[in-house]
Design brief:
Chain A contains 5 helices and 7 strands; from the N terminus they run βαβαβββαβαβα. Chain A is 55% helix and 20% strand. Chain A has one domain: Response regulator (Rossmann fold). Chain A is an alpha/beta fold and 143 residues long. Chain A has a 5-stranded parallel β-sheet, with helices on both faces. A two-stranded antiparallel ribbon of chain A has the order 4-5. Chain B is α+β, with helices and mostly antiparallel strands and 860 residues long. Chain B folds into 5 domains: 146 residues; 189 residues, ATP-grasp fold, A domain (Dna Ligase, domain 1, 2-Layer Sandwich), CATH 3.30.1490; 136 residues, D-amino Acid Aminotransferase, Chain A, domain 1 (2-Layer Sandwich), CATH 3.30.470; 109 residues, 3-Layer(bba) Sandwich (Glucose Oxidase, domain 1); 215 residues, no CATH class. Helices cover 39% and strands 20% of the residues of chain B. In chain B, the strands form 5 sheets. Chain B has a 9-stranded mixed β-sheet with strand order 24-22-23-25-26-27-28-30-29, with helices on both faces. In chain B, strands 14-21-20-16-17-18-19-15 form an 8-stranded mixed β-sheet, covered by helices on one side. Chain B has a 6-stranded antiparallel β-sheet with strand order 9-8-7-6-12-13. In chain B, helix 3 runs parallel beside helix 19. The chains are: A alpha/beta (143), B alpha+beta (860). At the A-B interface, helix 4, strand 7 and helix 5 of A face helix 2, helix 3, helix 4 and helix 7 of B.
Chain lengths: 143, 860
């Protein structure tokens, strides 16, 4: 199954270049350069992994991670940043980000991280499916 | 629940199976989640250890790095360790929650080490010169604090003026929100090459030049200037950088920041920004890097001093910079502003004043001073021709020279160290002190005798601006474009030794310049960095780019080719002070990161609360993760997830737990045969173990064997190395590309772990080995031998007593398998050699044999 990625960054050129490179690697890529588009895209599409710039003019990446995980707990977030501050990176991880990657991005490393994040999401989805089946079975038994 | 299904489940439980399909799926799902968590944990472990190794290497090496290296590596380790803790929490929910707390505490300590020194509070934005003393250096920078002291305590004449303090700088950065953007630019832009450095410098300076000076600070600057300005005389100002850390011993920053001369009062605010922006000139950034100074700690204050229209000016040293035994006063002097001297571009006079009372000029060399700097009628300074009749006349009378020397000696007495003083004389004969900083001096260097067959020098003469000798190819630098193509290790060849070329000093083997003298800024920085330099050498005819030469700065000569005898005994250029602030910060941070204090996984103290460093946490997480994975296989009632006993001709004392795809097919029953194994690292280690037949224990003397037997019975640690049941056997935990082996070979405890997947960046091979039955000395000898053999194969090894740990990372699949094969061989063939470790010839024999075997083992 193709992995769907939402790439969020205010630097248009960066977004376009990275989107092109990820598409070549057979990812299904959506992009957003402003905050409102992020949640629109998430609500309209089945997104597996969000790549999120930590520092955007109208968006605090750490807060956005928290918001995304609150509404879409299974969607994995990978933070992209140029500012290596331990506090910021850890803050993002504590908010539920899957991982953290420093710009400039190494494409192979990014692809690995996306695949790992997607695998985690898949495993969680399977677990939920099993629990639901069990619940269905249990409720079937009581009928 | 229907009566039928209730009855069926009860019956299943009573019979011990079969188990419901959904339970198997649940177990499978759980197992897969755990395996995924283990994989992520191991990848994070590899990253954490890699970053730690890089940090340790940097701390011990002489390489240059800035705070961005320290911060990004601390971040990388912190994030990796957090990921390990989080994934361990998936493997064992809430069992090790205390680790999150420990991690937070350790990180708090690391953050404290990285924190910028807090700026003093309640600092005024402006301080008048008459209120400044040396104790103000934290807010005015040392340069201006020392000048305040010169006027207010020593009582010498300095220009009127005021200092725009570091509080103004902090406000400027804060109100324009520049901090995060500067940090972002520094972090994201490489400055490894000069063109990258120039781009980064330009972006950073642009950021400051376009910032707004807060209105109240602008008003305060204008107000302070108004108190000094004489509208009739048309007072103008000299703006001098006075950054924190500037002008200290061995870090003069001579000429690396901007000074603006003859600035009109109406332009003070804009000029202030220009001086602040010069914090990021390429040469200043490079200089901080070379000196290991933390960017965050360098707040820029700016001195605004009334401009002195100098008749003559220059620099005085209260000692010989190239010979600390020589305490004469050396004065470089020229007509006009001292800029003529400190720029190091033009001819000047050199006077030596003997400091015995009464002071007297003992030597004078008068240069042909055809150029001088004077005030421009509107603003700034301009270069002008010196009148013919003045050119060869001394720019300083004997009386003035003695007055300058007297002032300089007074300052040396006051500050308690030889000093470097910038001065000017006025038309009415007054001596004004413009700057005073510690003089860095070296011991006298004696030159090796030239061999009789040495070629004649290409040039000889000039000044030894920085002693020593070096060889390299000529590379002329006149413009930026030539600076950008400067090859590492070349001889920087200049017509004029401008301070800006200091940015190239860490790449240059030596410096030769046609013009200039010992008192120029470039000369000062070359001395600090230990780069041999001859300035004022005269026309450099025949110095073509690419020609190899040997610069003998001590002997003031340049020879064609490479003259080995001159280079012998000359230490490599020491570009960085061994323990500069950045390296100190790295070491302090490392103290909370790298030491491993949690050694024994079976010790009672192996628990989260005893993790003192991030390395301890990685160790704890790794160990517990493997145990948790094993426990899952043992505790579940599903045979698919239980371990199997290895069958190799006969049942072996080896158990194998498959994490997924480690077996070719589903294995039924309690045995797994070697041919069922799909795990490549496991097959490789087995291959290594059986590749070369072991000829049994090496022949030992009666004493050696007795020692082994004694240890076997007397050392209680050998009876059971682990308390947990899984560790009492030899175990492989495997998947298709992963293998963790825990084993006891005789008396030796071994752990081998390898990941040989498709991602070379994540692949690794780690090996640890401990124990033995011989005495301590022989066990340690064996550990050293194994360590040495592995090091030859590219492992990063660490040997402490009888413990060897070794690790290789970033490997192609095949290379991991090769390495594992060698480790398998070593496990079998070193197990009993501790018995012969006190016989050097036997050790050598075994070493040679093993080296040969290892070469034959390599398949790739």
């Amino acid at each position: 199954m193709t992995i769907s990625v939402l790439l969020v960054d205010d630097e248009e050129t960066f977004v376009q270049t990275l989107a092109k490179r990820l598409t070549l690697r057979r990812f299904n890529v959506y992009t957003a350069t402003r905050k409102p588009r992020v949640f629109e895209t998430l609500s309209e599409n089945r997104i597996d992994v969000v790549l999120l710039d930590v520092r955007m003019p109208d968006l605090d990446g750490i807060e956005a991670t928290k918001d995304i995980k609150a509404v879409y707990p299974l969607v994995e977030v990978i933070l992209l940043t140029g500012h290596a501050s331990m506090e910021a990176s850890l803050e993002g991880m504590k908010m539920g980000a899957f991982d953290y990657l420093l710009k400039p991005v190494n494409i192979d490393e990014l692809v690995y991280k996306i695949e790992d994040a997607h695998r985690k999401k898949e495993l969680q989805e399977e677990k939920i499916r099993r629990l639901r089946d069990q619940a269905d079975e249990a409720s079937g038994d009581t009928v | 629940m229907s009566a039928f299904s209730w009855w069926k489940r009860l019956l299943d439980r009573f019979r011990g199976g079969p188990v419901g399909q959904h339970n198997i799926e649940e177990a499978k799902g759980l197992f897969e989640s755990r395996y995924h968590a283990l994989r992520l944990l191991l990848a994070a472990n590899t990253r954490a250890l890699k970053s730690m190794a890089e940090m340790e290497q940097a701390a011990l090496s002489n390489s240059l790095f800035g705070m961005s290296f320290v911060r990004s590596h601390c971040t990388a380790v912190g994030v990796s360790v957090f990921k390990m803790v989080r994934n361990l929490d998936i493997l064992a929910p809430e069992r090790y929650s205390l680790l999150f707390e420990r991690l937070e505490q350790i990180q708090g300590r690391i953050d404290d080490e990285l924190a910028t020194i807090p700026a003093p509070t309640d600092v005024p934005y402006i301080l008048p010169m008459e209120a400044i003393a040396h104790s103000h250096s934290e807010i005015t920078g040392s340069k201006m604090a020392r000048l305040g002291e010169v006027a207010n305590v020593v009582g010498l004449l300095v220009p009127s003026g005021f200092v725009i303090t570091t509080a103004s700088f902090d406000r400027l950065i804060a109100t324009n929100d520049l901090g995060p953007e500067i940090a972002r630019l520094l972090q994201t832009n490489q400055s490894d090459t000069l063109d990258e450095l120039f781009v980064l410098s330009s972006n950073l300076q642009q950021l400051i030049l376009t910032a707004e000076v807060p209105a109240d600070i602008a008003v305060a600057i204008q107000g302070a200037a108004a108190e000094i300005v004489d509208p009739v005389a048309g007072t103008t100002f000299a703006l001098r950088s006075s950054a924190l850390g500037e002008d200290s011993i061995n870090a003069s920053f001579a000429g690396q920041y901007e000074s603006l001369l003859n600035v009109r009062p109406s332009n003070l605010v804009a000029s202030y920004l220009e001086v602040v922006a010069s914090k990021y000139t390429p040469q200043a950034m490079q200089y901080r890097m070379q000196r290991g100074l933390r960017d965050d700690d360098v707040a820029m204050s700016v001195g605004c001093l009334e401009m002195v229209d100098a008749r003559s000016g220059g620099v005085a040293y209260t000692g010989n910079p190239n010979n600390r035994e020589d305490s004469n006063v050396f004065i470089s002097s020229a007509w006009g502003l001292p800029k003529t001297i400190v720029d190091g571009r033009f001819a000047s006079d050199l006077l030596i004043v003997n400091r015995e009372e009464p002071l007297r000029v003992s030597s004078r060399v008068v240069g042909n001073k055809n150029t001088r700097f004077v005030l421009h009628p509107r603003e700034g300074v301009r270069r002008g021709k010196v009148d013919e009749d003045l050119r060869l006349r001394p720019s300083l009378t004997d009386a003035e020279a003695v007055a300058v020397a007297g002032a300089a000696i007074k300052l040396e007495d006051h500050f308690g160290t030889p000093v470097d003083v910038e001065w000017a004389t006025t038309d009415d004969g007054a001596v004004v002190i413009l700057q005073c900083r510690p003089l860095s001096q070296s011991a006298e260097v004696t030159r090796a005798a030239l061999p009789p067959d040495a070629p004649p020098p290409l040039i000889s003469g000039g000044f030894t601006a920085s002693p020593g000798a070096a060889s390299g190819i000529i590379h002329w630098v006149e413009r930026d474009v030539e600076a950008l193509s400067f090859p590492d290790g070349a001889v920087m060849t200049l017509s004029q030794p401008l301070p800006r070329w200091a940015a190239l000093l860490d790449r240059a083997a030596a410096v030769i310049a046609e013009e200039g003298g010992v008192a120029g800024h470039l000369a000062t920085v070359a001395r600090e960095l230990g780069v041999p330099a001859i300035l004022g050498a005269g026309p450099l005819v025949g110095f073509e780019n690419g020609r190899e030469v040997t610069v003998d700065a001590t002997g003031r000569a340049v020879f064609p080719g490479r003259i080995e005898v001159l280079l012998e005994g000359v230490e490599e250029t020491v570009a960085a002070v061994p323990d500069n602030p950045v390296r100190q910060t790295l070491k302090k941070a490392l103290a909370h990161i790298a030491p491993l204090t949690l050694m024994d996984p079976d010790g009672l103290d192996f628990k989260p609360t005893n993790c003192r460093t991030l390395h301890d946490i990685t160790r704890f997480c790794h160990e517990q993760a493997v145990r948790e994975i094993f426990a899952f296989g043992s505790d579940t009632s599903f045979p698919e997830y239980a371990s199997k006993q290895l069958h190799y001709n006969v049942p072996m004392q080896w158990w194998v737990l498959d994490l997924g795809n480690g077996f070719k097919d589903t294995v039924k029953g309690k045995y797994v045969h070697l041919e069922d194994i799909a795990c490549k690292p496991m097959l490789a280690i087995w291959d290594g173990m059986v590749a070369v037949p072991w000829d049994g224990p090496p022949a030992v003397s009666g004493r050696g064997l007795a020692s082994v037997l004694f240890q076997a019975t007397a050392n209680p640690a050998l009876s059971s190395p682990f308390k947990k049941p899984y560790a009492n056997r030899n175990y492989f935990i495997i998947s298709k590309h992963f293998m963790n082996l825990q084993s006891r070979f005789g008396f030796h405890f071994t752990n081998v772990e390898a990941l040989a997947g498709e991602r070379p960046e994540e692949n690794y091979l780690s090996f640890s080995f401990k124990g033995g039955a011989a005495d301590r000395e022989r066990k340690a000898g064996r550990a050293r031998l194994i360590g040495a053999l592995l090091e030859e194969l590219g492992f990063a090894t660490n040997v402490i007593e009888d413990v060897v740990t070794a690790r290789r990372t970033n490997l192609h699949q095949d290379d991991v398998e090769d390495g594992v094969r060698v480790v398998g061989y070593l496990l079998m063939h070193t197990r009993q050699i501790d018995m012969i470790m006190n016989d050097p010839s036997a050790v050598e024999r075994y070493r040679t044999k093993m080296q040969t075997d290892i070469r034959l083992l390599s398949k790739n």
